[in-house]
Fold:
Amino acid sequence: MTTPALLISIIIPVYNVEKYIATCIESVLSQSFQDFELILIDDGSKDHSGKICDEYAATDGRIRVFHQSNQGASASRNQGVVYARGEWICFIDSDDYISRFYLEGFVQAGHLDKYCMNLQGWECINENEQAEKVITFPSVFAENEEMGALISKYELFNNNAPWGKLFNREVILEHKICFPPHLPVREDALFTYTYRKYIKSIQCIPGSGYFYRLPGKRITLSHKNYRPEIYLSIQEELIPLISKVFERFDLQDSPYHQKVISYFKNHTSLSLIKSLYAYPIVSGKRKEMLQNLFQDKTYFHDPAFCIKPLLRFFKGLFHLFPTPVFDIFCFIPFHFYYKYVRRIKS
Structure:
């Protein structure tokens, strides 16, 4: 007996979210549109998250739970795509939730064509469940040469998270699109921008049915940083991809392209500089990476790149002083900065 085709597979990576996962699952089960399966990937949770997922699966046949050792959100989402049986993929983060009509919005107001990107708005909510920011779109559809104007007008590439969108599973598999497991940050942007390379139309759906939980209050100094190699990968893989996608929609000379490229280049470059002093790196290697960064004329002379004052300050100092002097200038304040951060975290 052939299993009937499902329309939507909902994929939720789960890791240590026992405080929120029940709310997330309940919001899915209460959907007005019911032709879906819910795939929960327990990524080696150390709290009761996995148990909570199993308890829900025992009461509802639409839920499938897969347990794995901790491999990260990218690996979890990739596995979810492999397990999925639906024509369309919907990603949800385990500490977020959706409105009752979220899926129905995609199905009823959307344009369910293989190469159409369907988008919905969202609400950013704080710890008190209050909306601090609401993003909505009008009901509008565009294809072919009309897409560029729509993307630019509503800045549709601002949200690079996998949520708030409906992805076609066949397109993902056909073009071997995946979340890069080697990146713990910006991996969602790489996935989303790669998918955008293949879309032929866009459907914006009114409403803000996705509720994104803002990170709780925390000490500013404790923002997580990653090893330099991570930011070098972002420079090499993501930033050229962004430019290619904008060029595909004839937006390479647009102010919106400048805004997006400038955001990613400024943040990535500054994060790279900080990471060189956040980790124990041999001085010679650190100086070499600084030279590669600041002497890359193609990277900095990009007409779409508007350099922020802080990065301009570092760049100016690098060209003003010899590399060893610049390195010492950065090493002393950053050394105490991260020494304090580690003490705060411990």
Observations:
- The chain has two domains: 6-213, 220-345.
- Residues 220-345 form one domain.
- The chain has a mean pLDDT of 93.
- The first strand starts at residue 6 and ends at 14.
